[in-house]
């Protein structure tokens, strides 16, 4: 496991001073070569539960393209735990990189119909006895335990920020940031019209915590969709900041921030934090030469 008391690197963004914006990036992409970004922190309490209770297996749910599936497989393998991934939909004839990587980390993959998945039905092989010896993690690590890991990470940071921005999938990371007591927390949804997010995030907030703002206009067509403008932005962002990003999540976050900075959304006294949630391995699905940095 990584050292959860170590502060991940913070990198300032001098490029944005010309827009009168002071900002830094919390480089969660740099905490571990395989389990990158927010995933270790969302898994923290589930993994600790397995270790404390002596349970030997992690069971989790996800789509065939989910970073959470690979991260869980890799983390379980590092800790000597068995892992099982219940994957939505039929087994693809040509499995993508996520499934290949997860299987490479020893995860047992079980494919279920979309209906069974929606009902959170477990495959018959997973009987009561097996369940008693397993920690079950909801899809995408969504839940209070996931949010708590992120909240504890935010509490390590040595400075206060006036705004904290992150990309949003399930909303667990966003809720964890808000629960740390941070001010002006803004999430950038990477899905098109995912209006269920408000309820999903609200369910994870501690009493007295203000609902973070969620921006819905930076999806670039929807989950894992991209446009030429987004790819061009990723290359320009890397040239300006030397920070690589992924096209599914963090490019949409940084694009939103870039636009806000150029529109003078922030005041010169503000101190903005952007949370880099990792996901760079997702760029491997892009044709070679698309990006001006190695994925
Ligand atoms: C999983 C993931 C997210 C989404 O985090 P949530 O807590 O589900 O909102 C954001 N960025 C990257 C790179 C991810 O892999």
Description:
This protein has ten helices and ten strands. With 295 residues, the chain is of the alpha/beta class. Helix 8 (197-202) links the parallel strand 8 and strand 9 (213-215). The two termini are 24 Å apart. The strands form two sheets. The chain has a six-stranded mixed β-sheet with strand order 1-2-10-7-8-9. A four-stranded parallel β-sheet has the order 5-4-3-6. Bound molecules: pyridoxal-5'-phosphate (PLP). Residues 37-38, 67-68, 140, 167-174, 246, 249-250, 277-279 line the site of pyridoxal-5'-phosphate.
**Helix percentage:** 25-40%
What gyration radius follows from the Cα positions, in whole Å?
A: 19 Å
Cα shape: globular
What is the strand content?
15-25%
- Tally of strands: 10
The succession of helices and strands, N to C, reads EEHEHEHEHHEHEHEHEHHE
Provide the residue-averaged pLDDT: 96
Features:
alpha/beta; 10 strands; four-stranded parallel beta sheet; 10 helices; single chain; binds pyridoxal-5'-phosphate; six-stranded mixed beta sheet; 295 residues
Please render the helix and strand layout as text.
Layout: E1 10-12, E2 23-27, H1 39-53, E3 57-62, H2 67-78, E4 82-88, H3 97-104, E5 108-112, H4 114-118, H5 128-132, E6 134-137, H6 144-155, E7 163-168, H7 172-179, E8 185-189, H8 197-202, E9 213-215, H9 228-241, H10 250-262, E10 272-276
Parallel strand pairs: 2-10, 3-4, 3-6, 4-5, 7-8, 7-10, 8-9
Antiparallel strand pairs: 1-2
Helix pairs in contact: 1-2, 1-6, 2-3, 6-7, 9-10
This protein binds pyridoxal-5'-phosphate.
């Amino acid at each position: 496991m990584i050292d959860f008391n170590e502060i991940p690197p913070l990198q300032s963004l001098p490029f944005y001073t010309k827009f009168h914006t002071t900002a830094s990036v919390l480089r969660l992409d740099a905490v571990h070569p395989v389990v990158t970004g927010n995933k270790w922190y969302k898994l923290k309490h589930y993994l600790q539960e397995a270790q404390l209770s002596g349970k030997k297996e992690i069971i989790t749910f996800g789509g065939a393209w989910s970073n959470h599936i690979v991260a869980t497989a890799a983390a379980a393998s590092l800790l000597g735990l068995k892992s099982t991934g219940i994957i939505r939909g039929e087994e693809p004839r040509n499995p993508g990189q996520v499934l290949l990587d997860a299987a490479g980390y020893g995860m047992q993959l079980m494919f279920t119909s979309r209906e069974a998945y929606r009902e959170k039905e477990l495959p018959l092989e997973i009987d009561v006895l097996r369940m008693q010896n397993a920690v079950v993690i909801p899809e995408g690590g969504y839940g209070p335990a996931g949010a708590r890991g992120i909240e504890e990470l935010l509490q390590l940071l040595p400075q206060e920020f006036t705004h904290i921005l992150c990309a949003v999938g399930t909303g667990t990371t966003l809720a964890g940031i808000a629960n740390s007591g941070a001010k002006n927390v803004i999430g950038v949804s990477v899905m098109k019209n995912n209006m269920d997010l408000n309820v999903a995030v609200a369910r994870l907030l501690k009493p007295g915590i203000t609902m973070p703002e969620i921006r819905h206009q930076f999806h670039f067509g929807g989950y894992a969709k991209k446009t030429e403008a987004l790819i061009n932005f990723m290359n320009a962002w890397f040239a300006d900041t030397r920070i690589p990003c992924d096209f599914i999540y963090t490019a949409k976050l940084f694009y939103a921030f870039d636009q806000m900075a150029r529109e003078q959304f922030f005041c010169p006294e503000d101190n903005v934090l952007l949370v880099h949630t990792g996901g760079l391995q997702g760029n491997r699905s892009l044709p070679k030469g698309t990006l001006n940095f190695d994925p």
